[in-house]
Amino acid sequence: MPSPLVLIVAGYIGLRSLETDGKVFLVSEDGKVAVLKAGRDWDVLAVNDLGEGSYATPALSEGRIYMRTEEALYCFGSSRNH
């Protein structure tokens, strides 16, 4: 979990974060999702815009990440053929 200072400097104030597979996902209230490489230097891997506000913490299930916004629920991950 990043320190509160990292969250403020990156503009992602709050605790809506998720760490998995060596990456930290931070979600801002305006729907921006930053993906950081966990480590000493916190490299920014990507910043994506969900297009609307989000006040929920991302969730993990079976290798997929779920993110809820004001109007939708998104699922990110690779599809699997069973």
Provide an overview of this structure.
The protein has one domain: Thrombin, subunit H, CATH 2.40.10. The longest helix is centred in the first third of the chain and has 6 residues, at 4-9. It has a four-stranded antiparallel beta sheet, with no helix packed on it. The chain is mainly beta. The protein starts with a helix and ends in a 6-residue tail after the last strand. The chain is 7% helix and 41% strand.
What descriptive keywords fit this protein?
three-stranded antiparallel β-sheet, 7 strands, 82 residues, four-stranded antiparallel β-sheet, Thrombin, subunit H
Report the end-to-end length measured between terminal Cα atoms: 34 Å
- Major beta sheet, strand line-up: 1-2-3-4
CATH topology: Thrombin, subunit H
CATH class: Mainly Beta
Helical content class: under 10%
User: Helix and strand string, N-terminal first?
Assistant: HEEEEEEE
Note the overall shape. Answer: globular
List how many beta strands DSSP finds: 7
Q: Return the structural class.
A: mainly beta
What proportion strand? Answer: 35-45%
| Gyration radius over CA | 13 Å
In short, what is this structure?
With 82 residues, this protein is mainly beta. Helices cover 7% and strands 41% of the residues. Mean pLDDT is 77; it is low at 1-9.
